[in-house]
Design goal:
This protein is an alpha/beta fold and 382 residues long. It contains 15 helices and twelve strands.
Length: 382
């Protein structure tokens, strides 16, 4: 795969595919992916977010506006299964590497273009980020009440990454049947809407906009809400099913609340009753009384606490690689084997592209012994 994308959506998608065996060559402009400049740095001054998103990849900087690099890039395309890019629509054409050019060189190539609003949108040239897409697609309003919210991790970017990885696997399967590649046009703003399929269906049937507190998923239900404990920490109650709610009410000593599970929303009165229940307890009592009971009660943990949990340890979701970097891995065991660690990214920064590197990158540890060329870089046959 050739990955020309930057920031989060494209790199995260290719990272997941690398976890599944794809070989990724990340092509960056001479100044590098702008994600290098965002977020914290480790003790060696290296960009943490950038390295997390691009572990296991090989990185090569090229100036596609320069004729030698442009020609070398097209040679790479000949042996590539998939190309992912995250430019605004029209940039590939200006660089002379748009679909007609790529398809002529390699008819089996699959191109995945990830942009904010999509190639045929009237907003295709408009800048946007995750918070913009959530604001425009109804998510921020429904979840924020009087103060619409953005999210960390970013929902649109993350959903776009997952959709891209899924669609590319489907496209590879289709290409293997027909022998011909295709173009996937994925808009991050669009990626938000399928996540709201239940809410969209509800609006279609009732014509009603579900604002904050209007139904159980966004604060309207007592049985699915967040509550403060006596010492000021928080717990989540997720007793959606009546049987779980009954278990909670019984253990809390309030069987009189069981029949109020179906109170009209927002269940403000019932929420106040449950608020009083948890306010009399500290976290230790909540854990002792409820967490082993089928009633869906969880103590709210910060990330550091979560990383020390039994779930993360038993499932080996987060581990340290050979360079001491803590990695959040692909969340799946295959044939009883946990997810594999990712190798660190490897970068060749060369002024002559396919020769011996003559410059270095102060931000990254560069392995000059692994300079890339179009003949040595080929995707494994999967």
């Amino acid at each position: 795969m050739l990955d020309l994308s930057q920031y989060i959506p494209g790199p995260m998608a290719t990272l997941f595919l690398a976890d599944m065996g794809a070989e990724i060559l990340k092509i960056e402009p001479p100044q590098g992916d702008e994600m290098r400049q965002l977020g914290p740095r480790d003790s060696s001054g290296r960009p943490i977010y950038y390295r997390a998103l691009n572990a296991g990849k090989k990185v090569l900087r090229m100036n596609l506006k320069e004729s030698n690099d442009h020609s070398a890039f097209l040679e790479l395309v000949r042996d590539t299964d998939i190309m992912v890019e995250g430019f605004r629509p029209g940039v590939l054409e200006r660089l002379g590497i748009d679909w007609p050019v790529l398809h002529e060189i390699n008819p089996r190539l699959i191109l995945c273009s990830i942009s904010g609003y999509g190639a045929n949108s009237t907003q295709r040239h408009r800048a946007g980020h995750d918070a913009n897409y959530l604001a425009e697609m109804g998510v921020a309003h429904r979840n924020g009440g009087t103060v619409p919210q953005s999210y960390d991790p970013p929902l649109a970017d993350s959903a776009g990454s997952l959709f891209a990885a899924m669609l590319l696997l489907g496209a590879v399967y289709g290409r293997n049947q027909t022998g011909v590649g295709c173009v996937l046009d994925l808009a991050l703003a669009d990626a938000v809407m399928p996540l709201q399929m239940m809410q969209v269906a509800d609006f279609g049937a009732t014509g009603t906009v579900q604002g904050r507190g209007s139904y159980y998923l966004n604060g309207g239900a007592a049985y699915y809400n967040t509550y403060a404990t006596g010492e000021g920490r928080h717990v989540v109650l997720g007793a959606v099913e009546p049987k779980f709610w009954a278990n909670f009410c019984t253990e809390a000593g309030r069987p009189d609340l069981i029949e109020r599970h179906s109170d009209a929303m927002p269940q403000n009165g019932l929420i106040a009753e449950v608020t009083e229940i948890f306010a009399t307890m500290i976290v230790e009592e909540v854990e002792r009384r409820f967490t082993s009971l089928d009633c869906c009660v969880s103590v709210v943990s910060d990330l550091g606490q979560s990383l020390k949990s039994k779930q993360v340890a038993e499932r080996q979701l987060v581990r340290v690689n050979t360079e001491g970097e803590l990695q959040s891995l692909l969340p799946v065991w295959v044939d009883g084997v946990p997810p594999a660690l990712r190798s660190p990214l490897r970068e060749s920064h060369s002024t002559c592209v396919f020769g011996t590197p003559t410059t270095t990158d102060p931000d990254m540890g560069i392995d000059h012994s692994n300079s890339l060329n179009s003949k040595s870089f080929k995707m494994r046959n999967t």
